[in-house]
Amino acid sequence: MADLAGRDEWRRHTGVWHAGFGLLAAVTGALLVTQGRPIGLPLLAALGVWYAAVGARAVRDGEQGAAGLLYVAGALPLTLALFAVHPVCAVLLFCLYSHIWAVLPPRRALVATVLALVGTAAVTVVSGGLTAEVFVTAAAGLFIAAGLGLWITRIIQQSQERAGLVADLTRTRAALADMSRRAGALAERERLARDIHDTLAQGFTSVLLLLEAAEAEPEPESARRHLTRARHTAKENLDEARALIAALAPPALRDATLPDALRVLVGRVGADLPAPPALAVTGTPRPLPADQEVALLRVAQEALTNVRRHAAAATVGVELEYADGVVLRVTDDGRGFDPAALTGGFGLSGMRERVAQVGGVLAVRSGPDGTTVTAELVAP
User: Fold this and answer.
1) How far apart are the C-alpha atoms of 299 and 314, rounded to whole Å?
2) Are residues 260 and 161 located together in one domain of the fold?
3) Which domain holds residue 360?
4) What is the pLDDT of residue 3?
5) DSSP state of 339
6) Residues 260 and 120 in one domain
7) What is the pLDDT of residue 270?
8) Do 145 and 266 fall within a single domain?
9) Residue 329 clears pLDDT 90, i.e. is over it
10) Are strands 326-332 and 360-367 parallel, antiparallel or unpaired?
């Protein structure tokens, strides 16, 4: 397919030129026989062999090779010799003029056309004398041949330009496809980085903190509780890892609604906070597109993890509001931070990108009195 697309229209129709030459050569041969001039048949055969050996390739290549000049150098005298044998051979001049303009650049083609017309006029003068008709015929022939030649040249140029455009388009499409593959791979890497940060990394952090707490706990019963929670968190991490590998929804959302998944999340994280967070659901809960529910759950997970690790908050609230759109708010009364001063990592930037990908907006307000993270999605 690529080869057919790259070949210009001229080359794809050279068979018509070959058929045209063969037809006119056959007509000329028949006329020579019927007019009693078989002496011209060897010349006609020589012209046919010359066309097959050199001319066919020259016509196929157009103005691109030296074969064109070689072909004209041989075809011109042979055609004039046939015309000298009998005027009926003039039909071959139509082929000659067409071939001249097809295989030579315009300037050389014009020179070759003039030579052919001068040769034709000379044959006419030798056979019938110098008359006004000779000059009129030569002038008309030059005008017609030049017009036909320029038309053929224009067709060849347009055909080659079209082939160039097709080739450029093919290269551009290949480049765009490569860019698309690269962009897709980059997006997938970023998605995996965010998912790993929002799930596995946080889970491992929780396991580590729980194990450290178990080591520091003097009471065996309390240490056992920490170990049980660490085992439970590790199992959840394993489920998350399997879901990431299989590109599935988070396990918490697989068989539960978003409010239920948030309750489980709040209950799990709340065990590590001074006071259990409160979850408030307002409006009428409704199913959301899977990517939106995943985004909101991950935002809540990241925000609560940040509260647990950095905020030193006494109270934490999580609100899920169903209205025209859906709004998730995570608030705390901790020490706050400067959102503009944070650089790097996948925390706030990852939340913003995740929410933006599902058509939403993430806002963070933080100060000495606490922090509010708000993710707002438009109505699906």
Assistant:
1) 21
2) no
3) 256-380
4) 41
5) G
6) no
7) 73
8) no
9) yes
10) unpaired
